[in-house]
Amino acid sequence: MNKNRKVLALGVFDLFHVGHLNFLKFARQQGDALIVGVAPDAMCLKSKGKAPIINQTDRMTIIEALGIVNTVTLVKYPMIETQNAVNWMLDLGINKVVSGIQWQGTERWNKLTKHLAAHHIEVIFAPETPNVSSSAIKTTIYNVLSS
C-alpha cells in the first residue's frame, strides 16, 4: 500500500525533544522514505517574530543523524504561500505530507490540503506528545534562570 511512497514531514525542530522524535517516527511509518523539511531561521523569524534557539544548520544536522530519516532539506516556501509550497513539494516527488496536529483545521492547511489533493498528495496530522514542547522547555529554562 505504501510502496515507494515518499513522505515529507515539516517542522522547526528547535530544542529537539521526544515530541519531535515521536512525530518523525509517526511520519516514517507513513511510507518508504522520509524527507524532513526544516523551517529556515528567517522563515521562523518572519512568522513567529523570533528566531529559533538552535540555528537551522544545527537543527538539520540533528535530524540528519536520525536513522529513520532519508533526506533533510530546508523548507523552501512557507505553507501560507500555497501554490509555491505545492510546487516545491511536487519537485520533491512526495506522496504524503505530515504536519503537527496543531495545524489541523487551520485556514492555511485547509487550503494547502485541497491543492495537494488535486495532485494526489495526502496530508495527515501527527498526534501530539502530551506535556512536551519547545515552548514549554524555553519557559522552564527561563524560570530556572530567573529564580
UniProtKB/TrEMBL annotation:
Cytidyltransferase-like domain ranges (all copies): 9-139
PANTHER family: FAD SYNTHASE
Record protein name field: Adenylyltransferase/cytidyltransferase family protein
InterPro entries: Archaeal_FAD_synthase, Cyt_trans-like, Rossmann-like_a/b/a_fold
SUPFAM superfamilies attached to this UniProt entry: Nucleotidylyl transferase
Keywords assigned: Nucleotidyltransferase, Transferase
Molecular function as annotated in GO: nucleotidyltransferase activity
Pfam families the UniProt entry points to: CTP_transf_like (PF01467)
Record's keyword annotation contains Transmembrane: no
Gene3D superfamilies: HUPs (3.40.50.620)
Taxonomic placement: Bacteria, Pseudomonadati, Pseudomonadota, Gammaproteobacteria, Alteromonadales
Keyword Nucleotidyltransferase: yes
Organism annotation: Catenovulum adriaticum
